[in-house]
Amino acid sequence: MNSILGNWAEKFRPHPDGTQLPPHHGHCLGCGPDNPHGHHLVVQRRGEEVHAVHRFSERHMGAPGIAHGGAVATVLDDLFGFLLYLTGTPAVTRQLEVRYDAPVILGTSYELAARVVRDDGRKLFVEAEMSEVGGTTVATASALFLKVDIAHFDRGAPPAPVDLD
Ligand SMILES: CCCCCCCCCCCC(=O)SCCNC(=O)CCNC(=O)[C@H](O)C(C)(C)COP(=O)(O)OP(=O)(O)OC[C@H]1O[C@@H](n2cnc3c(N)ncnc32)[C@H](O)[C@@H]1OP(=O)(O)O
Description:
Keywords: Apoptosis, Cell membrane, Cell projection, Cytoplasm, Fatty acid metabolism, Hydrolase, Lipid metabolism, Membrane, Transit peptide. By secondary structure, the chain is an alpha+beta fold. It has one domain (3-152): Hotdog Thioesterase (Thiol Ester Dehydrase, Chain A), CATH 3.10.129. It contains 2 helices and 6 strands; from the N terminus they run αββαββββ. Dodecyl-COA binds at residues 5, 8, 11, 24-25, 77-78, 81, 90, 92-95, 122-123, 144, 146, 148, 153.
């Protein structure tokens, strides 16, 4: 098993309500603390939802001062990946749809929440939104995740040291 996956079984143990959930792995683009280009998303379980507060930086710029739509999609997709700790099964994104309701401003904090809306065999239907703190929704997302065996992730090489400018 690729060492980057670490102790994956431990990650899929039940996580109590209110606790911070573990990153998928250290180099994950969404949540890995060791990825210098990543979003470093920090996610908590709240009941049957996962929540985060996130701020995009200059590294994620699309239009001047505004987050790139792909960066917003990355964060929403990765947030969905934390629901897997609640369902207890590894899964991957099969389809992702994002609705951009308003510009996401760099340096501004946004609240994110995601939940499973239907768990149907291998299929997990999920939805999320990103909102100004205590205010207007700026993006919503829905996705289909398909449950996979952990061996699905055991294909790529572990990260080698690279020159990341
Ligand atoms: C330690 C940490 C680790 C865990 C780490 C977790 C990290 C999470 C990070 C965030 C998420 C990601 O970035 S994930 C990375 C991005 N995603 C990927 O790389 C996935 C690439 N795609 C694939 O590998 C494959 O397509 C799979 C595994 C997703 C599916 O392949 P498959 O197993 O052959 O399944 P397939 O036959 O296509 O579909 C299965 C069933 O779903 C239905 N289905 C398929 N598409 C749709 C659709 N759009 N809408 C409705 N239904 C659909 C099919 O009809 C079928 O239904 P029926 O006939 O059975 O009824």
